[in-house]
């Protein structure tokens, strides 16, 4: 199943820059793993914002949730998940 | 997978009352079939409105779409689908 | 009577991690009690968020309020309550 | 239990004026009955609109729904129901 | 004149608990006075929230404002005032 | 008491142009009367729309409602009323 | 450049069924051409609605507009276009 | 003074096609006049919609309103006007 | 030209009370000057809130912006400006 | 391609004033460079707010994103980007 997943990350203002750096590196690493697992299919930037839209694949919404929640920046992410149904023209 | 599905049906004002009656009968029949198939699990009324909220089950969003679209009043239904993920406390 | 109750919990950023741990343990304990009392019937996660949707039962909205307010994380919860009416097809 | 119920009635433009008159008379009659049954407690007009806000009482949301749905103009009413919980200062 | 007044109070996170206690006691005292003055007529809780809906009476919106602003927690209250007009069925 | 009253009028598409003309003439006449009664104080156009914002005066919201409802185009008006309280700098 | 394009089509209620049939056939034909031109990349159904979300490609927003406006059902489509920027992880 | 003016035109469904053609021709003619008068400065299409955004100039909001209201399709236009203030970097 | 200007002021929680007092005094002084300049015409309180609605006059939106920005509390004000056009009935 | 870009900047309350001064100087410098590159075409102030609307040009949304993200105050900016399509009357 496919989903459109939007998220915007707002780290706490006072967070120390080293911690921010480590988080971002781990985030990229985790995102790469999710690509290899076939869960994260495509990623775009929302122009002008620190936000992204992604095409994700998962066997269920529960699996999708666990994949998103595995991202290191998850505690500071504002996420909306939009389920997609197959269009007959794609068959 | 489980979904919360809301819909409000607005039939065209001029529709002839016999047609309305037939539609509603077929709607109930189809809903009963969907229950027997395990797709429609629970149905509630939104108090004060001609709208319902239902707990649905489907193997995928595509299957869910086809189930909803099979309802005779589908062309006049305003539907929102909310995907639900399993909560660990339910395991 | 049945209600759909949504809530998202945002603990203050500076809260010490032990306090957070204790709150979460007590929250799970209280939720289990509410299940045994028949008030909390089903719980789902909103995919991608630190939010839940639950099916609750209470004899009145006042009783429902007291049950929700008894959750340890209540001071930091953003809650919306949706009343549900019985649908004739469920009789 | 008490509820705040808002509704705005929009009759179809082409409806013949006699039918409108009969509906309004029956509406007032039914409202009076609902008062006598203790279900409709107070009614206010939303200033400037053909809309009302009412304080209603019912043993359950299902009973409330049936009371509202018994109003002759129900098919043309846009209704929102807000559940109210008892405030400790009122005990 | 009658008004529906909603408010939700959010005290600053760091406020010392004694100060919070004193504020809440004074709030209850002031609310009781407003009842005796006939300004605060009925109060309900919004189920699940730290918010209230109240039926208020005042000779003018200015008098209503002064009554609400006299509540000790006013600086931290998010308030909406809805004016109500008399319904002919109430005469 | 003073109120900001916004309204946008949408006459039914099929209304015959003579009827529209008569309505508009009567509307202007009634508006002039309301000015003489001191109820309609100032009127502005919302630039680009067939909508107006007005400063109104009335002894109560009920009196305000009756004044607005006395406008010939009332059945086709979408109105919002905003109550205003006196500002101390105006005393 | 890539865009997320959502649209929901609402044909006029009275439209004769043959005309509806012809429109839908031409719509599918045009959509196929847009795929061959590489403009329409992926299409999904919004579960439960007569609406679609699509991933589109165009050299400019003007070219995108002309492609969407070339769809036979365009006069009855409610469209929103969301521009997407390339994400560095996709390079 | 400069303004951003958005509008979307929805002609009544039953309007006869000749009348539609005449309206559109007159609309273009009037728009050209407004350009010559320096009132309409730039016009863009909202991609995917039958809507436009324009940069307009007028000595006052009243003059702007009269210019917009002079467009033949004004009775069927949904318009929003956004006032713009000069930015110091433009001096 | 006339404008309806709404603003709500939220001073930072930790601001020292003397600084708050000085700001409020200077705010009143500046408001009085703006009245003398004919820019601030009328001011009302939004009942129940720490917010105001004002009728302002300015030769342009740029002049209006500078007048509002000259208020000492401007950095903490949430402002919306609504342009008003002259209504023919006011001529 | 042209875009309407809105942004409102909210610097953290505790930021030291020298840092704020440096940021604003660099912001003006960067904005001037973007003008010279032809990316920032026109800039207006939203009257009454610390917000701007700008007309921008870029070969793609990705290029636009990079231009906006190059502004020193980008981490504290709330941005919305609206894509514009060419209007035939502008050819």
TrEMBL record, chains A, B, C, D, E, F, G, H, I, J:
The portions of this protein that span the membrane are none
- Under Enzyme Commission nomenclature, its number is 5.3.3.4
What general EC class does the enzyme of this chain belong to? isomerase
Question: Which reaction(s) does the protein catalyse, per the Swiss-Prot or TrEMBL entry?
Answer: (S)-muconolactone = (4,5-dihydro-5-oxofuran-2-yl)-acetate
Q: Which residues form the Muconolactone isomerase domain?
A: 1-89
Q: Which domain of life is it from?
A: Bacteria
Key words of the record: Aromatic hydrocarbons catabolism, Isomerase
Pathway info: Aromatic compound metabolism; beta-ketoadipate pathway; 5-oxo-4,5-dihydro-2-furylacetate from catechol: step 3/3
Family label? Belongs to the muconolactone Delta-isomerase family.
How does this polypeptide assemble, per the annotation? Answer: Homodecamer.
Instruction: List the protein's name.
Output: Muconolactone Delta-isomerase
Give the species. Answer: Paeniglutamicibacter gangotriensis Lz1y
What gene name does this entry carry?
catC_2
């Amino acid at each position: 199943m496919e989903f459109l997943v939007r998220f915007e990350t707002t780290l706490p203002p006072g967070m120390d820059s080293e911690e921010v750096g480590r988080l971002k590196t781990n985030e990229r690493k985790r995102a790469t793993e999710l690509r290899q697992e076939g869960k994260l299919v495509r990623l775009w930037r929302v122009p002008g914002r620190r936000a992204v839209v992604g095409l994700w694949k998962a066997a269920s919404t529960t699996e999708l949730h666990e994949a998103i929640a595995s991202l290191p920046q998850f505690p500071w992410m504002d996420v909306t998940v939009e389920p997609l149904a197959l269009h007959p023209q794609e068959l």
